[in-house]
Amino acid sequence: MLALIAHIFYGAAAMLWETLWALVLGFAGSAVLQVFVRREEMMRHFGRADLRTVGLATFLGAVSSSCSYAAAAAARSAFKKGAHLIPTLAFMFAATNLVLELGGVLWIFLGWRFVLAEAVGAFVLIGFMWALVALTFPKKLMEQAREHGEAEDEGCCHHEHHHGSEAAAQPGKLRQVAEAFFGDVAMMWKEILIGFLVAAVLMELVPAEAWKSLFLNGAPAPLRLVENAVLGVVIAAVSFVCSVGNLPLAAGLWSSGISFGGVISFIYADLVIIPLLLIYRKYYGLKPAAYIAAILAGSMVLAGIVVDLLFTTLGLVPHGPRPPSPMTTTHFQWNYTTWLDFVALLVLVILAGARWRPAGQPSSMHAEHSH
């Protein structure tokens, strides 16, 4: 038993080391974007559901780099101030699925085809979400949601953070970037660590044959296509892992036989995990929360199916034997990943120095120039 536990923790730590550089550099790139984009000011224009507004909401979400809880809180704040539901949901989705660090980690685990599919599918999903809301929009229900009382603070990262406004008060652009960087890390580090650990446990303990039977390998293609997309959302919902933290498990599911579209639906479904569904209920009330969850889940399934069909038609779905589980292929070793991690750690040290240097103390470079 002790050997099994040690192996699980080793696998989780090795997968984290393999992706550390992508996480650090992704968070750093996102922090730079946040410093130069005043999100709160632009979110005031979310009152309509037109192409320009939805596009702006998607862009702001992509540069916000939020954990799912913080994205939900920011979206709810905009909604209470008069934002239309469609740009609100587009922002929330983009803030967790179109961010730099997710693309980097996804590339490491599954390759460029999945990164491309995740990006293309995100716009497909927003399109489906827009269409479903436009066709079914319950005006009175959304008015009830807007009037719903303030939810209790969920703790941890269940709050909205304002990188732009906070950073503006800091002296110097580097310090602003450092503030945004460590704000994101503070929000997401627990989710990321839990995600890697949950993935290691499931990949180690669930037999490959159990996964294959669950994913209907050998069933008619249309049935498997739909079932796997639905199952991807269901597995994500009960895994309790969101944002970047669900990517190791996505790689494990792919190696265990889930369809291409099933992987994409699973990645997208970080916004319908059970803890978030309970938060939606507090934010909006039971019926509006159920409506929002149904719109999100339905869009995720449809996007996974469309992406699977599109990439199959284009010949972009990987064929041949599936890669082995990351638990069996990821190890601590001296290779290019180690050097990239060292670069990432150097970036981390520089940002830490900028963040915790006393506000009135100039940098060494500035001090030299002053002499």
Report the sheet with the most strands, covering strand number, pairing sense and barrel closure: none
SSE sequence, one letter per element = HHHHHHHHHHHHHHHHHHH
Low-confidence segments:
149-170, 363-371
State Rg: 21 Å
Helix content: over 70%
Total of DSSP H or I helical runs spanning 4+ residues: 19
Average of per-residue pLDDT values: 80
Total beta-strand segments: 0
- Form type: globular
Q: What portion of residues belong to β-strands?
A: under 5%
The structure class reads: mainly alpha
Instruction: Report the end-to-end length measured between terminal Cα atoms.
Output: 63 Å
Q: Could you characterize what this model shows?
A:
- The protein is an all-alpha fold and about 375 residues long.
- It is about 75% helix and about 0% strand.
- The radius of gyration is 21 Å and the shape is globular.
